[in-house]
From TrEMBL:
InterPro entries: MurNAc-LAA_cat, N-acetylmuramoyl-L-ala_amidase, N-acetylmuramoyl_amidase_3, SH3-like_bac-type. This is SH3 domain-containing protein. It comes from Savagea faecisuis. Residues 1-26 form the signal peptide. Transmembrane segments: none annotated.
Amino acid sequence: MKRKITFTLLAFTFVCGFFYAMTSYATSTVETKGKMNVRSGPGLTYDVIDTLQANESLTVLDEQDEWFRVSYKKDREGWVASWLVERKSDVESKGDVVISTTDGLNVRLGPSTQSNIIGKMDAGKEATLELERDEWSYIIVDGMYGWVHSSYLTKTTSETQKANDEMTPSPEAKDGQFTVIVDSLNVRSRPGLQGKVIGYAHRGEAYEVLEVDHNWVKIQLDSKKSGWVASFHGQLNASQKSGEQPSLFLISTIADGTNFREEPTTHSPIVKRLEAGYHLNVLKEEGDWYEVEIDGQRAYVAQWVVSTLNSPNISKRADEAESTTRKKASIPGTLNGITIVLDPGHGGHDRGTTGARGTREKDLTMKTAEVLALKLRSAGAKVHLTRERDTFIPLRTRAQMKSQMNADAFISIHYDANVDSTVVGHTTFYFHDNQKELAEVLNATIEQQVPLRNRGVQVGNFQVLNENSSDAVLLELGFLTNAAEEQVLLSSQFRETVSYGIYDGLLQFFND
């Protein structure tokens, strides 16, 4: 009798739970933002079974990764991409203008670092903000709709302007030069985005400062014309006063909550935390730390958590420093004495890209890293893998392994994806200027070995790169979303040839 009662209670609990779940989903509704496809399963590789128009109401029945299973038009069901619908939790921001605070900001198909990259934004690029969801922003840039992480954007609304004014000390007016650090910068008739564009300034150009109004700088554009530019797109150097230590170059914080400490060690007390996109002049380098001044107080920040901003002198200085300090193989023609960290992308619950034929990126990166590790070890290198099996390793942990192992190079291995299945080729990414040489060498030697289109060397704001201060690259070795290229990438012959290309590049880099 007791067993019968227990069974009845369990059954009742299950039925109640089932109806509670159904009720919870039934009360969750979303609305389409535009014309969109309904698919038979949760992914872009599933068949399109229907098409919806803008402003249609859908009931969410289930969620999987970035996809919703929905009911619509009374009795129809299917899967829709979560980033193409609006939920009540979304914050409307339609019409706000936002600006990228970093070069190479990824624009993604959905609000996740695992979503496909469909474009990039450079520092200073303006976009229209449509809505915000959690830590992500849905924007329109150059006619393209996509998601970017909100920490790399700055708003130009009055509320944000006021916050920036409170955080950013106003530099000395009429006393110094402004050096442009982005490729092209609008010069406006008055401070603010409402000012008419009256000219352009370009990377590396320096202008006399006439006036400073919070985050806007008035510069002398030429002998007859002056105008206003946004201060965070350049380096503002006040005239050096007697006895004052000169600035070496400019850095930018690349993540919210960047710690600035009393001494150059992670055990030292934190004196300030700054948001992403905050620019500071470096006064001194001490080991792997930069000394800066914030609100009149000296502080230290780790080199691996900031980005060095370009200027003609900075690039030259970094190149010269790298050329004199790069480690060489202890035995010519080998990799003896060299330590390399290989990072097989993704793992565990993070499967990465799923190919047109169902290939999981996390599996292919692991196989490629294993083949490459054998070649490097046979040449005398010490090789460490960020993961050796199908486990999830946080990006920050991966990035830190280079310094923990005192490694000479960090190679992150990935396979690419694009919503356009015709896109093909391999790409080599770097972030800091002093990573570019290694990227160029590897890109060239890979091109010599593999039968794929070379998409070249590009700046990529990936955490495993921006948190490594030198000799770190991320390799996208081909597109799994192209069925024909996926077939090539799956072959053991490709893994052999591409790993030889990487091996040959590292051999050249540490011997030349």
